[in-house]
């Protein structure tokens, strides 16, 4: 039975009437029209559906809406502010870190959580952190480079 | 065997659908009229290319703005008097960045910024017929067509300006979207030149284009067109399309691979609110207001299935060598005897002589597993019927092929079906077919509203087609001095691409033998070339090591093709070939060519003896695909192909038994991940004197044999299967 849920998504309060065991991914895409978050496997093994919940990366395909509560959800759409790209978004473009782009949302969102935790991650740390995110086009090396570029951009901005 | 014939063979055998018997042209006026006033330049299909693509074409004529337009249109460019430059091609963007590289080609000739060009792609109502985006044909055929059209547009604009100003055209030049009179500040924008008229020009193969050594836009890195939309999540893939009042569909799937439906009870599903259920033959599907309801409805359906033959991988490789193969029911009685019983048996004729002349003789068998493309965006379609017309948004490499499927499925004429392909979450040769489109359209017709169907990952792993499995048998002889005295090579089922042996051999025989595949099989990036390169290069490596010759030296001694030698030497140089690897480490090298490109790869592996895990720590690929169009995107393709190739080399295999696919999930089917990524270096050999070849496929073929050779170097065990799964 659908019941009301007050969610906080990308800084906005939104109200949805859905079953509490619906997955966040479906609610974002279908009910809220936030299609930047992608479906790739539904079993938590590809990372295409990655969002942040209170700053922590989460697989929205495995997260029930009832478990989200009032925590802050950030999707790819919420990463750039006022039309200004997030340093990772700029860096992905700069490093040409995508081909078909289908994994890109999940990669960027997951990487943003990494940079928050670790502003200057090494190759090994990036590999470790992102191993659950699949890029079938095989752009891994470029994604690693992009994350390091973004770390630099952030350092510059902080200076 | 030359490339076009090679491509033909593959198409004949491994394209899932044959080319349509007839191709009826719609009235072109319809979509050309919507262009408004301006200059239209139409590029005719390149005859040579179209033959290679086997396009069934007519030569009839339609019209635009009262002028006649030939029907064998390959692409067109429209410079509107509103200043818009629109380029139309039936090719699809699936991550290979042709939206960018084609825009670069046009920008180059028109002397306008890349950003001012709008590419209209892969929409059957708005782009000319195209056979499909595969076989690395876009760069060698579509790109020159567009270049010629753009060059012709530029010249036509110069003519218009010369006429208007009453000056000699030699005094005029073109820059930044204007025609400029040299040495003056007189200039006029393109859009002002047409003055509300609709002008048409037609170009053929003969129009001259800027040679590669004078390129200023092509040949240089250009950021991905629309890149912004991808990094912000704004790009709308087929699976993201939303239509007013749209419902969601699910299809009932059989529990086993080749099952037939015997009975079905839809009543429980039909009793649900906002649910429509339909059965049509073996097709059972539901649509509902929400995806969740659709899932519940499909789960409520009771169905009984008669299982098909109990296919199993246990006997696969023996079966593939037999003419009958493992017969899937729908193929039984059809073409079952196309394969000749071969098996290596006794060498005969000249091969026997060659073997007698050898110091070392080998007979080896290599096996190739089925693998899945597993594009991260599964098949998806949104279908909508309005007044008897069908529009489908879907991710496919063959929009016109999918339209054909829809026309056939619903007995509709061409002008009642429109297929629109948003830039797609990739395909790798796996999205040539329109399953999801047909399914979505069938249920949408029942519901009377737009319907979205997105395949689950499991459906993608079980209902899509696979890269063919195969058995490759090789017989080879070598003399101590490095002469290859005999080479016999038989490929069963996996395919004929890359079958030819580029090494000098005294006696040679290569053959492909079709078989019956228990699983549905079709195209894959580089087709069978990956498998054939793996077997060939592994065998060559074995010959070299048998006579104690360095594998690089051995190859250079026996290769005649200069471009192949050049990539091999370039890869070896950058890699630092010749240094000894450390303990539990090994290095390997391989070379190949396909679709007009040349690739050599060196790899270094580290073996963890406690776990048996093989880690490729470093790889260098040198690639020559003629004149480089966009170096950044090209490097990206080469790296991506290498990574994808690692999957087939080391970990990917479809497991099937008891009539079922056993590993239809990413948790059971390992595709390359971050952890598997070596340090990759790409060396591009920019041959400005050679036509640009496509680059999406070729760079995948050399990584597996290079890794195999490196594993041998480290362990003394020669991998002879893909995936290798070495026992160390
Ligand atoms: S869709 Fe959630 S991890 Fe793959
Ligand atoms: S860019 Fe295609 S899946 Fe990553």
Short description:
The complex is a heterodimer of chains A (159) and B (728). Chain A has 159 residues and is α+β, with helices and mostly antiparallel strands.
Mind sketching the topology for me?
The complex is a heterodimer of chains A (159) and B (728).
Chain A: E1 3-9, E2 12-18, H1 24-31, E3 50-53, E4 56-59, H2 65-68, E5 72-74, H3 87-94, H4 104-117, H5 123-130, H6 140-158
Parallel strand pairs in A: 1-5
Antiparallel strand pairs in A: 1-2, 3-4, 3-5
Chain B: H1 3-14, H2 29-33, E1 38-44, H3 47-52, E2 61-64, E3 67-70, E4 73-80, E5 85-89, H4 98-110, E6 117-121, H5 138-165, E7 172-175, E8 178-181, E9 187-189, H6 190-193, E10 198-203, H7 227-231, E11 247-251, E12 260-265, H8 267-270, E13 275-280, E14 283-288, H9 291-299, E15 302-306, H10 316-321, H11 349-356, E16 360-368, E17 380-386, E18 389-394, H12 399-410, E19 417-420, H13 435-447, E20 451-454, H14 457-463, E21 470-478, E22 484-492, E23 505-513, H15 529-546, H16 551-558, H17 562-575, E24 585-594, E25 597-608, E26 613-624, H18 631-651, E27 656-657, E28 660-661, E29 679-684, H19 703-715, E30 721-722
Parallel strand pairs in B: 1-10, 5-6, 11-20, 16-30, 18-19, 22-23, 26-29
Antiparallel strand pairs in B: 1-4, 2-3, 4-5, 7-8, 8-9, 11-14, 12-15, 13-14, 16-21, 17-18, 17-20, 21-22, 24-25, 25-26, 27-28
Bound molecules: FE2/S2 (inorganic) cluster (2 copies).
The site of one FE2/S2 (inorganic) cluster has 12 residues of chain A, from loops.
Ends apart, CA distance between termini of chain A: 52 Å
Largest sheet of chain B: 7 strands, mixed
Shape field of chain B: flat
**Amount of beta strand of chain A:** 15-25%
Q: What is the number of helical segments of chain B per DSSP (H or I, 4+ residues)?
A: 19
Keywords:
heterodimer, A: 159 residues, alpha+beta, Ubiquitin-like (UB roll), DNA polymerase, domain 1, five-stranded mixed beta sheet, globular, B: 728 residues, Aldehyde Oxidoreductase, domain 4, 3 domains, seven-stranded mixed beta sheet, 19 helices, 30 strands, flat, disordered N terminus, binds FE2/S2 (inorganic) cluster
């Amino acid at each position: 039975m659908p019941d009301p849920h007050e969610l906080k998504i990308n800084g906005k309060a939104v109200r949805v009437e859905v079953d509490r065991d619906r997955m966040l991914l479906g609610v974002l895409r279908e009910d809220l029209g936030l299609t930047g978050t992608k479906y790739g496997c539904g079993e938590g093994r590809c990372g295409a559906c990655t969002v942040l919940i209170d700053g922590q990366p989460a697989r929205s395909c495995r997260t029930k809406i009832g478990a989200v509560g009032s925590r802050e959800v950030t999707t790819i759409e919420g990463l750039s502010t006022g039309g200004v790209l997030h340093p990772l978004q700029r860096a992905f473009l700069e490093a040409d870190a995508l081909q078909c782009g289908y994994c890109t949302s999940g990669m960027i969102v997951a990487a943003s959580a990494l940079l928050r935790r670790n502003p200057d991650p090494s190759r090994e740390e990036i590999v470790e952190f992102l191993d659950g995110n699949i890029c079938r086009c095989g752009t891994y090396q470029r994604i690693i480079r992009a994350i390091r570029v973004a770390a630099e951009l952030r350092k510059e901005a902080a200076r | 065997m030359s490339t076009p014939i090679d491509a033909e063979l593959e198409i004949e055998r491994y394209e899932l659908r044959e080319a349509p018997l007839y191709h009826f042209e719609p009235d072109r006026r319809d979509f050309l009229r919507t262009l408004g006033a301006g200059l239209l330049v139409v590029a005719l299909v390149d005859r040579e290319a179209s033959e290679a693509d086997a396009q069934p074409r007519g030569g009839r004529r339609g019209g635009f703005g009262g002028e006649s337009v030939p029907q064998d249109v390959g692409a067109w460019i429209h410079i509107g008097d509103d200043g818009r430059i629109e380029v139309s091609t039936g090719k699809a963007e699936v991550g290979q960045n042709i939206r960018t590289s084609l825009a670069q080609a046009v920008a180059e000739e028109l002397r306008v910024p890349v950003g001012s060009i709008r590419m209209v792609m892969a929409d059957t109502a708005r782009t000319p017929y195209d056979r499909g985006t595969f076989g690395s044909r876009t760069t060698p055929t579509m790109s020159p067509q567009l270049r010629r059209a753009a060059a012709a547009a530029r010249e036509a604009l110069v003519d218009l300006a010369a006429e208007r100003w009453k000056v000699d055209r030699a005094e005029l030049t073109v820059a930044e979207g204007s025609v400029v009179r040299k040495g003056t500040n007189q200039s006029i924008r393109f859009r002002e030149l047409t003055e509300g008229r609709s002008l048409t020009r037609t170009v053929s193969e003969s129009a001259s284009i800027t040679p590669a050594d004078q390129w200023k836009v092509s040949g240089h890195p250009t950021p991905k067109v629309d890149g912004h939309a991808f990094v912000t999540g704004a790009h709308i893939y087929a699976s993201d399309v939303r239509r007013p009042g749209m419902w969601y569909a699910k299809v009932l799937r059989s529990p086993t691979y080749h099952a037939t439906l015997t009975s079905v009870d839809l009543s429980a599903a039909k009793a649900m609110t906002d649910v429509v259920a339909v059965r049509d033959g073996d097709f059972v599907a539901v649509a509902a207001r929400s995806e969740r309801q659709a899932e519940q409805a499909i789960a409520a359906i009771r169905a009984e299935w008669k299982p098909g033959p109990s296919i199993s991988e246990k006997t696969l490789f023996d079966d593939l060598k037999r003419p009958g193969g493992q017969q899937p029911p729908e193929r039984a009685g059809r073409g079952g005897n196309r394969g000749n019983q071969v098996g290596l048996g006794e060498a005969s004729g000249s091969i026997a002589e060659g073997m007698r002349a050898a110091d070392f003789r080998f007979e080896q068998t290599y096996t190739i597993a089925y693998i899945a493309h597993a594009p991260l965006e599964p098949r998806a379609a949104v279908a909508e019927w309005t007044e008897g017309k069908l529009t489908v948004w879907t991710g496919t490499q063959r929009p016109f092929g999918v339209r054909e499927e829809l026309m056939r499925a619903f007995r509709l004429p061409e002008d009642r079906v429109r297929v629109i392909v948003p830039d797609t979450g990739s395909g790798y040769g796996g999205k040539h077919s329109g399953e999801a489109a047909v399914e979505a359209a069938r249920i949408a017709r029942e519901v009377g509203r737009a319907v979205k169907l997105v395949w689950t990952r499991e459906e993608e792993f079980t209902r899509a087609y696979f890269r063919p499995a195969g058995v490759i048998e090789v017989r080879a002889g070598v003399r101590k001095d490095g002469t290859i005295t005999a080479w016999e090579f038989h490929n069963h089922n996996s395919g004929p691409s890359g079958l030819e042996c580029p090494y000098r051999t005294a006696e040679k025989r290569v053959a492909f033998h079709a078989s019956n595949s228990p699983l549905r099989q079709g195209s894959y990036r580089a087709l069978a070339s990956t498998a054939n390169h793996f077997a060939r290069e592994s065998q060559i490596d074995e010959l070299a090591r048998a006579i104690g010759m360095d594998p690089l030296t051995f190859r250079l001694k026996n290769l005649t093709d200069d471009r192949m030698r050049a990539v091999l030497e370039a890869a070896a140089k950058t890699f630092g070939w010749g240094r000894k690897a450390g303990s539990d480490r090994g290095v390997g090298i391989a070379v190949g060519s396909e679709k007009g490109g040349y690739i050599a790869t060196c790899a270094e592996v580290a073996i963890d003896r406690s776990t048996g895990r093989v880690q490729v720590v470093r790889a260098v690929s040198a690639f020559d695909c003629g004149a480089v169009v966009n170096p950044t995107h090209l490097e990206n393709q080469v790296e991506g192909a290498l990574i994808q190739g690692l999957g087939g080399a080391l970990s990917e295999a479809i497991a099937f038994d008891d009539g079922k696919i056993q590993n239809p999930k990413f948790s059971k089917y390992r595709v390359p991940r971050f952890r598997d990524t070596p340090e990759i270096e790409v060396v591009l050999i920019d041959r400005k004197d050679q036509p640009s070849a496509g680059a999406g496929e070729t760079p995948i073929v050399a990584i597996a044999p290079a890794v195999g050779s490196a594993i041998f170097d480290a362990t003394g065990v020669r991998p002879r299967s893909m995936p290798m799964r070495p026992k160390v």
